[in-house]
Amino acid sequence: MRIAFFSTKPYDKEAFDPLAKDMNIEIDYFGEQLTPETVSLAKGYDATCSFVNDNVDATAVKALKDYGIKAILLRCAGFDSVDLDKAKELDLPVLRVPAYSPEAVAEFAATLLLAVNRRVHTGYNRSKEFNFEIDGLRGMVLKGKTAGVIGTGRIGKATINILRGFGMNVIAYDIYQDTESDINYVSLDELFAKSDVITLHTPLTPETEHMINSETIAKMKDGVILINTARGGLINTEDLIKALEEDKFRGVGLDVCEQESEYFFEDNSHVINKDRTLQRLVSFNKVLLTGHQAFFTDESMDAIAEVTLNNLKNFVENGDLTNEVNLFLESIQG
Ligand code: NAD
Predict the structure, then answer these.
(1) Which of 45, 126, 131, 159 could form a disulfide with 4 if both were Cys (CB 3.0 to 4.6 A apart)?
(2) Annotated catalytic residue: which of 121, 231, 250, 258?
(3) For residue 334, what pLDDT band results from cuts at 50, 70 and 90?
């Protein structure tokens, strides 16, 4: 089996190479993202392996099918980078890694929360310049405050456990409620109205796109903390900036953003004409933006490599479609 591996970084090779050798799978690594422009690199392979910011749109999916690709492998949980309707129409399986380490992302959401609340990033920058002034760094105690968790899947649940550990009163919203759990579900409007902290853990879908916008921000408490480790498209960035200009938030912690596909995972410090919206966003002291690193732990990388390669092996050898995305969506939609 031969895989064309896109958006490769050194840490990907480190995780995938030893395992691929053991499993007799050949991988060719490309630095390019998988997009309609680069898809021809996949000619002659059995599968492609792509990451969160690749663009496997309908044109790319069609080309992959024409090249005889047997499966589109995603080395991530999110599946918004692939045109799933096209893949379904052409009977091309999209195999993902649904849960490599929910705790990795949940712990990072908590990291962002603690950091923006206590202004750790500002204190860090000040101390570099021997400025030990604490004016402007005042935070709030989280114990007794209300946290609203939107999306109570694997990562949302792991986040709830951590927030409860802080002594927070946790409320949650999900379109599919887990009735077996002890989660305190409320309506989205109630969550917006009551929460001191809001953290997003839903996939990016047509329904969740821009769920945080001027209208929903207006429903939130003044001084709320907003955390997004899910997908940038959940937040309308222009609306977020407007609200930041009105000093709506105590802090905003983002590991993802709408503009990330052009910038993330690369050093773009030399770029002159940087995206203005993104520049404006990072200019606010109350915003802490990281470059989609929430997943990035030893445990996650090992698990991602293992599940991704087994997804291909099990599909080719036994027709196993356990981690196929369209089948997953059909199963939850009934
Ligand atoms: P999951 O599938 O276990 O849970 C997602 C939850 O969202 C489900 O409970 C689902 O019912 C809910 N949901 C779906 N549509 C909704 C809607 N319209 N309104 C409210 N709830 C809705 O997924 P997960 O493993 O918890 O991951 C969540 C997301 O986190 C992923 O889709 C991915 O985009 C993102 N993620 C980010 C990183 C990172 O490094 N920053 C890493 C992994 C995953």
Answers:
(1) 45
(2) 231
(3) low
